[in-house]
């Protein structure tokens, strides 16, 4: 398959290079080039649904929020001198695949040293959040989300704990799970050490070493290997915010958009899924994702997990490897563990924790 | 969070203002809570930027806020990222404050018992001069 003739550049934006730009910020300079390109193309902010960027010290989410964008496809590219050309290629791929209609590519910032602040405390989160004492990891942010969710919809400590306890049941069937064989009760969770109200220690992931990988090939070659191919049928993405203060809402996550897009591409819906693997840095994350992905009506996830078997034996198996809460979170590979587990399950290679009937599964990160 | 600047007499992380964000911190030192207003579309912009994120206008001017708002969300932190917060402050309230004018700020709520904190509680700013150079905008219950 070729990208030849499949995409075009329709706008450009530049900021005149200067050795010193003492009255500018790096992210502001990048934003200016982006705005110019959007205008050059005759587009509006709302038309931009794809964003590729590399900026020294900042992330694609930071630029998206800075520019008031909520793209449904985004990527950071770190390819040294080839970053620009790589980004253009990636944009063409995204366009060809129908993942985005208008992709903004922005590479830039200030020169290192001189004008670019290298002292700690200058980046946006360090400047506007750190002085007030965030909790360890991302706990404080998810704790605020959990409190706000409880305020809007109602949610008990025991309902959140049910997620951790049921995922532990799954972990008992996974030889690779770090907490395999260690019993966990609701009582254990709701009496464990408080980290940041309402989230307690046993509702938070534990960082570990580890790695996860998959090998992918094209569909026409997929049948030549020894394993049963597991096909990607749909994919969706959504960027909503960088700082929690920039979130469009605290209690509905971008999963509401990314999941809908993935289901649309696949021509399938939540009811077609036989298994679900949801990113679980905290218990509250699983509850909100279950709702936003369409498996449970909004506001009902707490009652749902309390009254439903979500282990590998149940009616809606969730996080069958134990989730990161019981499998361990090997840093950024933690999210990838949901993918590897889903592949093993789909291939019938999940051993003791094998889900019985599996045609389709849903994974998020 | 990465390492933030820390002074010897004040062991907590301090902001390092940049050229665009500087006026926000300068205003606080004068006990004024400033937020950018976009002169093209009238939008309020926080954190400070070079462009309005709604209409992309670079014409922004600083405007003083009333300092009144509500608790948008909060948590009581028992395990902090930063060791000084852990040793000297925990447990404490870490919150998002929604100003009456609209913008949302990360801050602390003080002067309230931890178990009396409520979402949507009305609060007002007070200016905590933590060092000679830095004043932090913190909040307490209205009338508290």
Written account of the structure:
The complex is a heterodimer of chains A (365) and B (144). Chain A is mostly helical. Chain A has one domain (7-113, 204-363): 3-Layer(aba) Sandwich (Peroxisomal Thiolase, Chain A, domain 1), CATH 3.40.47.10. Chain A contains 12 helices and 7 strands. In chain A, helix 2 links the parallel strand 1 (50-54) and strand 2 (73-76). The relative contact order of chain A is 0.13. The model of chain B has no long low-confidence stretch (mean pLDDT 94). Chain B has helices at 22-29, 83-88, and strands spanning 5-6, 13-14, 34-38, 44-45, 60-64, 68-77, 92-99, 104-108, 122-129, 135-141. Chain B has one domain (14-141). With 144 residues, chain B is mostly beta strands. Chain B has 2 helices and 10 strands; from the N terminus they run ββαββββαββββ. At the A-B interface, helix 1, helix 4, helix 5 and strand 4 of A face strand 2, strand 6, strand 7 and strand 8 of B.
Distance between the termini of chain A: 28 Å
Mind summarizing the main beta sheet of chain A?
A: 3 strands, parallel
How many helical elements of chain B? 2
Mean pLDDT of chain B: 94
